[in-house]
Amino acid sequence: MTTAFSRSVSVVIPVRNDARLLEVCLRALEHQTRIADEIVIVDNGSSDDTAAVAEGFGARVVTEPVPGIPRASAAGYDAATSDIIARLDADSRPGPDWVERIERTFRDRPDVDFVTGEPRFYGSTPLVHWMGTHLYIGGMYASMAPVLGHAPLYGSNMAMRATVWRMLSAEVHREQTNIHDDFDLSFHIRPGMTVLRDRGLVVAVSARPFQDWASLRRRLSYVLPTVRLHLSPEPLHQRRRARREADRSAAGR
């Protein structure tokens, strides 16, 4: 039960045919030091027993039959009813204090609108884990942060205030299928909204996207279309200037 000073937390997990991994993730959420107020599973057209697994753990199942992570994640955010919307993927394995740390951050930091965390990869060789951490994720932060003017969101381990999602929900490209939904949302974050990169917010995530070239190539192929969606409406130098001005204004208050 939440107190007058705490914030309610919904955990959204989009899933398509990952029932066994989802079961492990939900078991981890079942053993949190601070239990989530609700868990929303978005069944994105699964043909396995994803819905039955979710219901067995008491999660609320939202159906999004049209395949695509952008549609599925947005449907979950829309359905969430808490103050804070946290996001995992089916292959995420949060540590026991994951929900507690997210709730405490938003409770103690009223200036923060988004929190994005770090992965610890499992399920492959040490070399693949190192490449995923330092080349893929490290490269994402190194290349995208200067473009965005803030840290990009990492969809397997992130959270945001429900109020900011409601402000941005009509703007995200939920109908696109060949983009990264977390990058897309990152581009829509407005000047004056604050993203906290919490390096202590760590979630174990499967390394399966990096185990073969075809999987890695598919993930990389989504990056350029995501960026292209945002080049024409808002030149990047104008975006960075607007964010610097908003930061200076906030610092002066």
TrEMBL record:
Pathway: Carotenoid biosynthesis; staphyloxanthin biosynthesis; staphyloxanthin from farnesyl diphosphate: step 4/5. Coiled coil: none annotated. One of its GO terms (cellular component) is plasma membrane. GO terms for molecular function: glycosyltransferase activity. InterPro entries: Glyco_trans_2-like, Nucleotide-diphossugar_trans. It is found in: Cell membrane. CDD domains: Glyco_tranf_GTA_type. Keywords: Cell membrane, Glycosyltransferase, Membrane, Transferase. Pfam families: Glycos_transf_2 (PF00535). SUPFAM superfamilies: Nucleotide-diphospho-sugar transferases (SSF53448). Residues 10-129 form the Glycosyltransferase 2-like domain. It comes from the Bacteria. Belongs to the glycosyltransferase 2 family. CrtQ subfamily. Catalyzes the glycosylation of 4,4'-diaponeurosporenoate, i.e. the esterification of glucose at the C1'' position with the carboxyl group of 4,4'-diaponeurosporenic acid, to form glycosyl-4,4'-diaponeurosporenoate. This is a step in the biosynthesis of staphyloxanthin, an orange pigment present in most staphylococci strains. This is 4,4'-diaponeurosporenoate glycosyltransferase. It comes from Microbacterium maritypicum MF109. The lineage of its organism: Bacteria, Bacillati, Actinomycetota, Actinomycetes, Micrococcales.
